[in-house]
Write a structure and sequence with these properties.
The complex is a heterodimer. Chain A is an all-alpha fold. Chain A folds into four domains: about 70 residues, no CATH class; about 90 residues, no CATH class; about 120 residues, Up-down Bundle (Hydroxylamine Oxidoreductase, Chain A, domain 2); about 90 residues. In chain A, about 50% of the residues lie in helices and about 0% in strands. In chain A, helix 3 crosses helix 4 and helix 7 crosses helix 8. Chain A is globular and about 80 Å long. The termini of chain A are far apart. About 5% of the residues of chain A have low confidence. Chain B is mainly alpha-helical. Chain B folds into two domains: about 30 residues; about 140 residues, Multiheme cytochrome fold (Orthogonal Bundle), CATH 1.10.3820. Chain B has ten helices and no strands. The termini of chain B are far apart. Classes of the chains: A mainly alpha, B mainly alpha. Chains A and B meet through helix 7 and helix 8 of A and helix 8 and helix 10 of B.
Chain lengths: ~450, ~180
């Protein structure tokens, strides 16, 4: 071996060694841009099982652009059965919602960020049909004709501001109740109507609802929809504190202590006592428990309407009616829910207690307050602006806030809401209303500013 | 002599049955596809969208469903005949007496369940419920249908099947006729 050859070999050997070391370091050291949750760098996702070619292309691109969405989806049941982006977001070219994102420009694929319930209903047909027969269906539709409500939101809350009057609606009402989603010239939803996950959205294809309200995209977990928090983002606050009532109840007590250890993902109709030690909202109002079948008609197991000004037993087949449902049949179903964990005596006595509270509200509060209001209206003793009139403000709070709290607290076993936030406040209201009423009749004038 | 007469009658009846079957079959076949249906000018945009669709032969195998394969009931021969007569007479009546420009095809598409028959779809897709090798999303999606848990029909979900880009073709056609 010549010296030159030896030197060359040593040189090559050193070079190779250096390359190996550098290579190993490069593998060990994470890229500077890499951080938790950024899936584009943590891992490459290549799925060639069960996905259409288009579906795989969406994922390949959006894992970089919106890693959060892909991270959600990849753990979902949809991902497991091969349902991917394009299956729900894909649109026919001639759909009013159809447009093309950068990645599909020039192809014959069209998409929309909007996924109407009709799309979900293609696979979840029964669920959509049940939803369409439920009180949730009218979440937005029922407020369309309510002029006094539009006046409250636009004129009073929005102060008739020429540009910004709709802000309270966009950030408030619409986010729970939904709206009619409108499209801009680019076929994308307008700022005024989207984003929102409002229960009663009317989509441009005419279908109503928003599955995403309870089944948050893009994970759609069973646990979430069965968890009280699925309902709590809308069913809370002074006018219908349902999550607070639940937490105040024995059911909530058990849930808050032990819920983390419960089994949340049993198959529909098979999620039964034993998986949990106490019910959540879904258990009583929707779940297949005992002989009852799972339903997306949340009205099906109800007896009263507990949010109307006056409570009546449900007795209407018109889904737009506040009295929609079959009260006695609903009560029978709800009793079956209770009987999974409670005795007959417990169940019967519980509902008798609750019904008394509802009837007391109707008879001792609603009826006399309504009679006073009608008389004042007849005698011209109500201000035109109800929100600057002490009587009308107290009247509103009486039925819309404390009246609901008393009734809903009573029938969902939340004693603090039945009593302190309910009947205690109600008696204060009725005395206040009587006081103002008597003074106005006596003086023939509307007091105050 | 008598036997001959009986034989002659039988042969005649046999021939009559074969010929009338052949004529009927030919007539049904000749009046069941794109060529015949577009003799009414109003059907042209619908046929154009059909030709662009997989079901209209726009597929590598060139397989083509005929109009009547989807738009007539295939429950049984009587139902087939009844729907053919009903739609046929309706079309002749409309073509003769109605203002054809006033027909809102787009709105009529909302009633597609009344014009497309599941028995037609399932005549070709007859093993859809148990088709081997179908992907899991297809299986899951059709479960409620085959379990009878939904009132939906095939076209409730497959709302564009059979006629690709129909809305835009109808719109373009409308603009053309308006001269705009």
């Amino acid at each position: 071996m010549t010296t030159v050859t030896r030197q060359l070999l040593i040189f090559l050997g050193l070079g190779l060694g250096l390359l190996t070391v550098t290579g190993a370091q490069a593998q060990e050291e994470p890229k500077k841009t890499e951080h938790m949750g950024d899936m584009s760098h943590v891992q490459a996702i290549t799925i060639d099982r069960g996905l259409t070619e288009k579906g795989a292309e969406c994922i390949a691109c959006h894992k970089d652009k919106n890693p959060g969405i892909i991270a959600d989806w990849k753990d979902s049941r949809h991902a497991h059965v091969g349902v991917s982006c394009i299956d729900c977001h894909g649109k026919e070219k001639d759909s009013p919602m159809a447009y093309q994102c950068e990645g599909i420009e020039g192809t014959d694929s069209y998409i929309s960020v909007l996924v109407p319930p009709s799309t979900c209903g293609r696979c979840h047909a029964r669920e959509q049909e049940q939803f369409n027969e439920s009180g949730h269906f009218r979440s937005y539709r029922q407020i369309i004709p309510k002029d006094s409500l539009h006046a409250l939101v636009k004129r009073h809350e929005g102060q008739d501001h020429p540009e910004l009057h709709n802000a309270p609606n966009e950030t408030g009402c619409m986010q729970c109740h939904g709206t009619e989603i409108k499209l801009g010239e680019d076929n994308r939803p307008t700022q005024e109507t989207w984003p929102n996950a409002g229960m009663g959205n009317i989509y441009p294809d005419g279908s109503t609802g928003d599955c995403d309200s309870c089944h948050t995209r893009h994970a759609f977990t069973l646990k979430e929809s069965r968890h009280p928090r699925a309902c709590a983002s809308c069913h809370l606050g002074p006018d219908h504190p349902n999550i607070e009532i639940f937490e105040n109840s024995k059911h909530g007590q058990v849930f808050l202590v032990e819920g983390d250890d419960w089994t949340w993902d049993s198959a529909p109709d098979a999620w039964e006592p034993g998986d949990y030690r106490g019910p959540t909202c879904a258990t009583c109002h929707m779940s297949g428990i005992g002989e009852l079948k799972t339903t997306h008609n949340i009205t099906e197991r109800l007896y009263w309407n507990l949010w109307a000004k006056e409570s009546r037993v449900r007795n209407s087949s018109d889904v737009m009616s506040p009295w929609y449902g079959d009260g006695p049949a609903g009560r029978e179903k709800m009793e079956k829910v209770c009987l999974s964990c409670h005795s007959k005596t417990h169940t019967k006595n519980f509902f008798e207690q609750g019904d008394k509270a509802v009837r007391l509200y109707n008879e001792a509060y609603w009826k006399p307050a309504k009679a006073m209001k009608d008389e004042l209206a007849e005698k011209g003793l109500l201000k035109e602006n109800p929100w600057a009139d002490e009587f009308q403000i107290a009247f509103y709070h009486m039925w819309h806030h404390q009246g609901r709290r008393a009734r809903q607290g009573a029938l969902m076993a939340g004693p603090d809401y039945a009593h302190w936030h309910g009947f205690f406040e109600l008696q204060q209201d009725i005395y206040k209303l009587k006081g103002i009423y008597e003074k106005r009749l006596e003086t023939g004038k509307i007091e105050g500013y | 002599m008598r036997l001959t007469k009986i034989a002659a009658v039988l042969v005649f009846l046999g021939l009559f049955a074969v010929v009338s079957w052949a004529v009927t079959d030919y007539a049904f076949d000749a009046t069941g596809g794109e060529a015949f249906c577009t003799t009414c000018h109003t059907m042209e945009p619908i046929a154009e969208a059909y030709r662009r669709d997989i079901h209209g032969g726009n597929n590598p195998q060139g397989i083509q469903a005929q109009c009547v394969d989807c738009h007539l009931s295939h429950d049984n021969p009587l139902a087939y005949f009844y729907t053919k007569a009903k739609f046929g007479l309706n079309d002749v009546y409309a073509q003769t007496f109605k203002d054809l420009d006033a027909i809102d095809w787009q709105a009529l598409r909302e009633h597609r369940e009344d014009y497309v028959f599941d028995s037609g779809c399932l005549k070709c897709h007859r093993r859809l419920e148990t088709a081997p090798g179908q992907d899991s999303r297809t299986y899951v999606a059709h479960r409620p249908y085959f379990l009878g848990e939904t009132e939906k029909k095939c076209v409730s979900c497959h709302e564009h099947v059979g006629h690709k880009d129909l809305s835009s073709i109808l719109q373009a056609n409308h603009r053309q006729e308006d001269g705009t």
